Amino acid sequence: MDAAAAARRLRAFKRWMRARGVVCSDALRLDASDPLGVHVRAVAPIHEGDLVATIPRGACLTPRTTGAAGPIEAAELGGCLALAVAVMYERARGGDSPWDAYLQLLPDRESVPLVWPADEAERLLAGTELDKIVKQDREFLCEDWKECIEPLISSGELDVHPDDFSLDKYFSAKTLVSSRSFQIDDYHGFGMVPLADLFNHKTDGKHVHFTSASDDSDSDDEDDDEQSDASADDQSTIENPTNSPSGSRVDDEDLEMIVVRDANEGEEVYNTYGTIGNAALLHRYGFTELYNQYDIVNIDLAMVTKWCTSIFSSRHARARVSLWRNLGYSGCTSQDAEYFEISYDGEPQLELLILLYIITLEPDVYDKLICVARDLIGDEEHDTIRNVVKFVKGTSSTPNSKLNGHDELHDVMKKFLHSESICSALLSLADMRESLYGSNNLEDDEEKLQACCIVTERKLYHSLVLRVSERRILYRLRKYASSRSKTKKRKHP
Predict the structure, then answer these.
(1) CA-to-CA distance for 141 and 304, rounded, in angstroms?
(2) Model confidence at 220, in pLDDT bands (50, 70, 90)?
């Protein structure tokens, strides 16, 4: 969209807001001059506690407010799928839609990997946390369209042309729903909230918070926003502790935008979509952030067992994983995968270290652990960890020391699980995980990123940010694993 067209559509949207009772403070300015999209800027200082916008719930586009509400309810559609149908329907109505000026302001689709050309997505995302997820997304959405949307069109209950509900249009609508919708309340469910969705995201840097007019508290409940899984389908939530019972109307309660952090004149005013890493940001919203401290790298359990089989045997791998599970341990799970997280600072998940400890146990110690495994399992997870720590200490040559409580368990466990054999395994796993990115190295990707333009090469830029961040985490994992040998050299010159 060129600058003149963007300015024209923004003016139409402002007229639409006035007509629908959406109020935006004079201290804020909607800016359409940025080629990356509309954003919100402060034209005067705003301060914590200021009310800067009110949005009637009836102005929101939801499965309840859309003209397709009847067919959506009859088809028993819900959640994001129902909202995607509402978006497609109102877009198909064009100028007859009550949300036309709002929808005209939005892009046709967000540039999320879901709608990148398949070959381009495969090339740019190879090895990253999104590599498999995007492929699975396409399969699931195709199934949704085939099973839910195609029958709805065939029924003739929606007076629209079938092309307006094509698979491609569904993908486009899904990108808008994924990146812009909010969970409003029990009655409306997921909805598009005009004006609210124009505030860009900044991790740990939000200026405004959304709440209902009936909520007297302006506290910021970050726990509602935390998301780390790239495949999570939870949407942003408008805080409303007084949610009405399911099925009741709350259209008389306006949504409010409250300032929770001061912004100076000229500053962009941000919301936050949660404390999430770049994989989730790119997956759902189509952008990334440099130096995102919430980034992680996952190492699949399948990769761990593959490494174990290459060193020992398939029988050894099955037996050791089985004992690990019998102790009550498991990795993180998403869809059909089980994995372990490597944190931003390169520290491996405790459950991975315990598994590697069991895998690398000498046969005699392994036999002892099998005999006492049942007795080590406690009522709570920290009880099991405490008991395993005691067993580890009992089979270690390191001098014993007392445990002073649950807070020390993690640190003590990491100390005893920093053996040479475990660190060697971590280095091998880091190499295996790194190989998924292809033949180039971290330095190559860093050079490409520095030379990349975020405006003209948007997909390349954000995929490089994601890959560079992940590879830097693997670099830190290697430092973590290598510190064992360095420590030994310092102790024994």
Answers:
(1) 31
(2) very low
* 442 token code pair: 């971290």
Q: Which of 397, 390, 301 is nearest to 351 (CA)?
A: 301
414, 458, 466: which is closest to 442 by C-alpha?
466
Q: Which of 257, 240, 250, 212 is nearest to 65 (CA)?
A: 250
Angle at 231 between CA 228 and CA 232, to 5 degrees: 65
Question: What is the SS3 assignment for the chain?
Answer: CCHHHHHHHHHHHHHHHHHHCCEECCCEEEECCCCCCCEEEECCCECCCCEEEEECHHHCECCCCCCCHHHHHHCCCCHHHHHHHHHHHHHHHHHHCCCHHHHHHCCCCCCCHHHCCHHHHHHHCCCCCCHHHHHHHHHHHHHHHHHHHHHHHHHCCCCCCHHHHCHHHHHHHHHHHHHHEEEEECCCEEEECCCHHHCCECCCCCCEEEEECCCCCCCCCHHHCCCCCCCCCCCEECECCCCCCCCCCCCCCCEEEEECCCECCCCECCECCCCCCHHHHHHHHCCCCCCCCCCCEEEEHHHHHHHHHHHCCHHHHHHHHHHHHHCCCCCEEECCEEEEEECCCCCECHHHHHHHHHHCCCHHHHHHHHHHHHHHCCCCHHHHHHHHHHHHHHCCCCCCCCCCCHHHHHHHHHHHCCCHHHHHHHHHHHHHHHHCCCCCCHHHHHHHHHHCCCCCCHHHHHHHHHHHHHHHHHHHHHHHHHHHHHHHHHHCC
With contact defined as beta carbons under 8 Å apart, do 426 and 340 qualify?
no
Which of 134, 141, 91 minimizes the C-alpha distance to 116? 134
Can you give the C-alpha Rg of the chain in angstroms? 26
Q: What is the pTM of this model?
A: 0.84
Give the pLDDT confidence score for residue 138 in this predicted structure.
92
Q: Which two tokens stand for residue 357?
A: 């400890």
**Residue 351 and residue 340: Cα distance in Å, rounded?**
7
Tokens of residue 45, six digits = 């200082």
Query: CA 360: distance to chain centroid?
Result: 34
- 378 contacts 340 by C-beta, under 8 angstroms: no
CB 477 within 8 A of CB 296: no
| Residue 20, beta-bridge partner list | none
What's the pLDDT band for 10 if we cut at 50, 70, 90?
Answer: very high
Burial of 58 (0-12, 13-18, 19+ CB in 10 A): middle
